[in-house]
Request: fold
Amino acid sequence: MPADAGAATSRGLLAFLWQELASRPGRLAAVARIAASCSLIVAIAMLYQIPLPAYMAYAVFLISRDEAASTLLTGIVAALAFTIAIALSLLFYTLDASEPALRLPLMALSTFIGMFLVRTMALGPVAFLAGFVLVLSQTLIDKIPNLEALTRLVLWLWVVVMIPITVTVLMNLLVGENPARLARRAALELLQALATALRHGDAEPLRYHQEKALKLAELRQRAGMLDHSLRPLAALDGALIEALAELSELQTLLPADTPADACVPLAEACELCAAAYAGSETVPPLPHLTETLLGSLSAEARPVVIAMAEVLGRLAAGIDRRLAAPGPAAPVGPKTLLSPDAFTNPDHARFALKTTIAVMAAYVIYNALDWSGISTSVTTCFFVALGSLGETMHKLTLRLAGASIGGLAGALCIVYLLPEMTDIGQLCLLIGIVAALCGWVATSSDLLSYAGMQIAFAFFMGVLQDYGPSTDLTVLRDRVAGILLGNVLMSLVFSTLWPTSAVDRARGATAKALRMLAALLTEAGPFKPGSRIAVVRALVDARKYAGLAAFELRMLPAPARRGEAFGYALPLDRLAGATFAVVDQPPLAGTVGWVVEADGATSGWLAACADHVAAGIATARPPTPLEIPAALLADAPASLRASVEARQFLQSEIENAVAV
Reply:
């Protein structure tokens, strides 16, 4: 690698870490809750000599979330899953405790069913945790052949899990974030960020605005779990969030030389909406864009400015309706337990089978070597299993990095700190400090958060070995070796058996976004909520999988990587923004026939492009621009001419996309 390329990579990594680890509202409080919960749980485990204190402390990281509703839901799911798993474990012991020939098939079957249901069941986390605990409890027979002692330990496992669940849930219910308040704050932050971008230029990439909008949608959904009065407002809030996401897309299309006279009124409108939403007051009249101002704009800026004004008007009207008396709750459609393609899509069964092979291989290897200390390899296989090789390798990388850092920190503490400690209070202080540092990393985005969890896991496994100071580095060495073995097995299995590339998933998300954009252009009738936010969600997925593809390191055969250079490289955000600008224009009198023909041609190209992207082949030629009758725009005001200009702008974006 050239020196300048290596330096650029280092700068990019540092910038990524700076962005991920930067302070944000609510982060310090979340970290404090994690640290306090870990310290309290370790104190309880040491005082009452409850087995597996390391797992008890680590469970806090698995259960704790940004706000109380998610933490409560996760705790309930975990409690249900562990109760089912413990009951099944005791049942299985009566069948296979003395019969390895039966125990191995039951372990494999439990793994397969659990991982299959993860992909196909609405309550996938319950199935995953139940399957994991069931398999892990069956491996204990090799370490504790006495059935009575084994039964007692398995019953203790339920206590080991329920204590951290109870402590973490209560901590979050008492001092945690209310999801409704968190959602309100996130919405205000997004509106203020849009206003700042319009006044001074955007300080954050578009992807951060998109991710904030999608996280806001998730927060709003969870808020209804604790506050039933919010349920009648679900549709209104969804439309408001969609408007924010659409504004973020449109704002990036504004040319850099757009006059401040056009940007400032839009920024003021964002600020007025934010003030009204924060103060629960009716939105005052928004600033008006005069015909003279619109006429002074370029053909590229005018349709974008008009579209943003249209969306802001929709946002203001939605806030006014939200602050009025809520109407009846929207009816909830029927929910199915299994996904529609559960038994028709072979990828679900293949994913379960690949994970099962890796888990059983790890179990056979550490038993054949008579090295029970590396049993963490089984745990690793469960927790790094994801849909594509890129996702698995990304999680594997975070796990290796986290385990290395946590193992080193644990070793240093074992050698230099633990021998000097004399009481539980000192140990809890150490646990709280390390848990806070790990929690800071764990509260990052999905791109980094798993590393924080693995630092905590490796550290706890090394330090919390017994009810007194740990001085043995062997346990720590074995645990890290088990993590390495599990990662190697998962890499080999997922890269050789029915390999699924993140490139395929990136192309699939791209094709989905293009099809939804094509449908937007041909929709008839009034605005239909949900269509814009679905496009944004597909764009975020496409970008995520494209980034994860870099972790595959060309481990897949060429057929699995076909077309990797094409598809997700399309400038999707600009295509989406230009399409939003088209559908948000006022109709131009006398152009109905021309508009229908132009939109139909563009929609057809987008649909064809989606098919080509999904197949990994080059796109079709862009549609031929339709000739605009000269008389069409002769006397039309600027606000209506933008309807034609928006379609010309979309056409130019399509031509630029094909040229990429």
